[in-house]
Amino acid sequence: MKIKVPRHIAIIMDGNGRWAQKKGKTRIFGHQAGFKAVKKTVKFALQNKIKILTLYTFSTENQKRPQIEIIALLKLFLFALKNEVKHLNKYNIRLKVIGDLTYFHEELKFYIYNAEKTTLKNNGLVLNIAANYGGKWDIVEGVKKIVSDVQKGCLSIEQIKEEIFSQYLSTNHILPVDLVIRTGGEKRISNFLLWQIVYSELYFTDVLWPDFNASEFKNAINFFSTRQRRFGEVVKN
């Protein structure tokens, strides 16, 4: 049987903290190991010609975590932006950060915009980093933009359809999500891409994120390949 490779894969990268605790280390150590797993995952996506990879790195709810952990996460994000852009260009990867960026400090925002600008013309893998992102936030922001355009006379209420609404979301530049992978054993969506994954296939694995590797990624794709995607229709045999 020919393996169907999803065009767009979104991953909820869960389990860094528990991975570290099992090793008697701090949660920050787990996030550092998780960053290494991200690099391996991007490499696998390139090798398997996946068009879009969206990674859930920091949710709007993560703001409730201890301040020391948040600071460490943001430092790790800044480090990645400063040091990985050259590799993104080398492998023709376009970077896009989606989420409420107003939460971040000015230096981090500068490097986000710089990385996006530097990789804008790359036409290989699209790598979306969902940072300070929430599905509810995304939908509310989309509603605000639509209301603004209606008030300006740029859009009528009658014109608002699902396709139009999708254009007002942070993911308006990408294809719908085919497959959602969640590591760490939990079986929930956690406010991730709520609008975008209505017909995505869902793959849950007990593997903690730092241990996620090519073998487990292949398992997820093999699972996707067995699914009959009907999108609400009845498929005749």
TrEMBL record:
Binds 2 magnesium ions per subunit. Mg(2+) binds at D14, E201. It is an enzyme of class 2 (transferase). It catalyses: 8 isopentenyl diphosphate + (2E,6E)-farnesyl diphosphate = di-trans,octa-cis-undecaprenyl diphosphate + 8 diphosphate. The active site is at D14, N62 (proton acceptor). Its EC number is 2.5.1.31. Signal peptide: none annotated. Its cofactor is Mg(2+). GO terms for molecular function: ditrans,polycis-undecaprenyl-diphosphate synthase [(2E,6E)-farnesyl-diphosphate specific] activity; magnesium ion binding. Catalyzes the sequential condensation of isopentenyl diphosphate (IPP) with (2E,6E)-farnesyl diphosphate (E,E-FPP) to yield (2Z,6Z,10Z,14Z,18Z,22Z,26Z,30Z,34E,38E)-undecaprenyl diphosphate (di-trans,octa-cis-UPP). UPP is the precursor of glycosyl carrier lipid in the biosynthesis of bacterial cell wall polysaccharide components such as peptidoglycan and lipopolysaccharide. Belongs to the UPP synthase family. This is Ditrans,polycis-undecaprenyl-diphosphate synthase ((2E,6E)-farnesyl-diphosphate specific). It comes from Buchnera aphidicola. The gene is uppS.
